[in-house]
Amino acid sequence: MVALEAAAAAGFETRLFGAGAIPSETYDPTRPERSAEAVEMIAALRRADGVLIATPAYHGGISGLVKNAIDFTEDLRDDARPYLDGRAVGCIVVADGAQALGSTLASLRAIVHSLRGWPTPFAATLSGRDKPFGGDGRAADEAALQACRLVAQQVIGFARMAQATRTA
């Protein structure tokens, strides 16, 4: 939410696709029918100049739910901007261990590259053990919040450049 709030504060339209709003069905390239959630998410991606992907790390990789949502970008393959082409993509990973943070971030960035997206130079890797967003009477970690804001700022900067080149 912190990164989305930063993008909204910069004047960008934002949409959150989290649990309950991302496609509930398993992606199947042989089945053309899509749920309302999948149709809405793909329509938002078509309009997007920037994307933020946040995932927990499970056993050193991205969450299956997030990967399944990413798989629906295949529906963009025949678009003028296929997949994540020309879109800045900010990556945020939360894990309990440093090894899972690194391997999950590397995997997420590789996925973004394979979909022709532009991963931002900075990514936020947050220790879930440290409760970066607070809770249980703890205050949010300002360094974690700033890391999420920095990811958003880089996505915003790249998105503005992309918009400028399309209108020039």
Query: How many helices does DSSP assign?
Result: 5
For this structure, what is the CATH homologous superfamily? Flavodoxin domain
Residue fraction in strands: 5-15%
Low-confidence stretches: none
**Average of per-residue pLDDT values:** 93
| Separation of the first and last Cα atoms | 32 Å
Total beta-strand segments: 5
Task: Please give the CATH architecture.
Answer: 3-Layer(aba) Sandwich
Strand-helix topology:
Elements: H1 2-9, H2 36-47, E1 50-58, E2 61-62, H3 64-71, E3 88-95, H4 98-114, E4 118-119, E5 124-127, H5 142-167
Parallel strand pairs: 1-3, 3-4, 3-5
Antiparallel strand pairs: 1-2
Describe this structure in words.
This protein has 168 residues and is an alpha/beta fold. Helix content is 42%, strand content 15%. The chain has helices spanning 2-9, 36-47, 64-71, 98-114, 142-167, and strands at 50-58, 61-62, 88-95, 118-119, 124-127. Strands 1, 2, 3, 4 and 5 form a 5-stranded mixed β-sheet that branches.
